[in-house]
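Example for tutorial group B:
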């Protein structure tokens, strides 16, 4: 699978447009997020991890904060591009 379609909530799409986030920057972020997500799935046995089906049940903010904290150097480098 080389292509996926992500349907964004209108408020997020509006923010992306207002911030003038380029397609290239968005693609770079999404690919990095997917890589981290896939690496996490290869981590400890499923019994000790929170299932992904419940990961965003309340909010994705905690996940995004964790993602940024764990990959701060990568995001700082990407921000300079």
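The residue assignment follows.
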């Amino acid at each position: 699978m080389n292509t996926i379609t992500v349907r964004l909530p209108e408020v997020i799409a509006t923010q992306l447009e207002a911030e003038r986030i380029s397609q290239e920057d968005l693609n770079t972020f999404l690919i990095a997020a997917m890589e981290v997500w896939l690496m996490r799935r290869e981590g400890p046995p499923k019994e000790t991890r929170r299932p992904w089906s419940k990961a965003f049940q309340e909010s994705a903010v905690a996940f995004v904060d964790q993602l940024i904290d764990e990959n701060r150097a990568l995001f700082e480098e990407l921000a300079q591009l």
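The chain has four helices and no strands. Compare this with the pattern of hydrophobic and polar residues in the output above.
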